[in-house]
Specification:
The protein is of the alpha+beta class and 170 residues long. It contains one helix and eleven strands. Strands 1, 2, 3, 4, 6 and 9 form a six-stranded mixed beta sheet that branches. It has a five-stranded mixed beta sheet with strand order 5-11-10-7-8, with no helix packed on it. Strand 7 and strand 8 form a beta hairpin. Bound molecules: dinuclear copper ion.
């Protein structure tokens, strides 16, 4: 059997070394572009709350949608098994519907009363873990009219699939 010469070994090694450097560099560049050019960020914890006292703790004592400025709204939402509460706490309806005019900027302020949930709003960047004892907050702008479905994306028990609602943009 003929042994490969030294030069061809260098070429083989180089063929492996090059992608092993190029792939991590490409991934770091992709992260930098998404963070700085596209503004995609991981949502942080913006506050702590006693999960046993959600009903009495502002702003969750009055969940719902309110206008806070021209074209600016705040949606205070409590997650619980198995619904999103955005009306009065004793409202027993399972499906939450919020309505905002087109061009609105909506800040979602969300916590959980019981277990870990997740809030995902279709066709937006809104995608948050909703953890008991933690306030999750994010803002999205709605320029295109339509119905935006929002769902719980973290399995939270047998009624998980009932946890959905709609944001109407008029
Ligand atoms: Cu709440 Cu799944």
């Amino acid at each position: 059997m003929q042994r490969p010469d030294r030069m061809s070994i260098y070429i083989y090694e180089f063929a492996w070394i090059l992608p092993s450097i190029a792939i991590p560099v490409a991934m770091i560049v992709a992260i930098a572009i998404s963070a700085f050019a596209m503004g995609i960020n991981v949502q942080g914890v913006t506050g702590r709350i006693d999960p046993a006292r959600v009903n009495e703790t502002p702003p969750f004592d009055r969940p719902g949608l309110r206008q806070v400025g021209p074209n600016r709204y705040e949606a205070v939402i409590v997650a619980e098994i198995w619904r999103w509460v955005a009306a009065t706490p004793d409202d027993k309806s399972r499906r939450v519907e919020l309505t905002v005019p087109r061009g609105s900027e909506v800040t979602f302020i969300v916590t959980s009363r019981d277990v870990i949930h997740g809030l995902k709003i279709e066709n937006t960047d809104v995608n948050m873990m909703i953890i008991p004892g933690q306030i999750s907050r994010t803002t999205a702008r709605f320029d295109i009219p339509g119905d935006y479905l929002f769902v719980c994306h973290e399995y939270c028990g047998t009624g998980h699939h009932f946890m959905y609602g709609v944001l109407h943009v008029e």
